[in-house]
Design a protein that fits this description.
The protein is α+β, with helices and mostly antiparallel strands. It contains two helices and three strands. The termini are far apart.
Length: about 80
């Protein structure tokens, strides 16, 4: 990740840089989990869910998913 000087007040006010950092960290975690064969743990419809490593799509990754998705298993 490239470091850059940021006005922290402005970053929190606008939120874009923070959103980008969260997206990058979530994608890095997804890639690592897939490589290690570990499920991701998330929250969906008020329940904890495990996303199997074979269901992790790192090419089209988004840390947010539609509550209508049927490919995750509630625990």
């Amino acid at each position: 990740m490239k470091e850059r000087k940021v006005d922290i007040g402005k970053a929190f006010e606008e939120g874009d840089l923070i959103d980008e950092a969260i997206d990058e960290a979530a994608r890095d975690a997804a890639i690592l989990h897939k490589k290690l064969g570990l499920p991701l743990v998330g929250w969906r419809n008020g329940q904890v869910v495990h996303i199997a490593p074979e269901e992790i799509d790192v090419v089209n990754w988004s840390h947010e998913f539609d509550d209508e998705d049927e490919d995750v298993e509630a625990d």
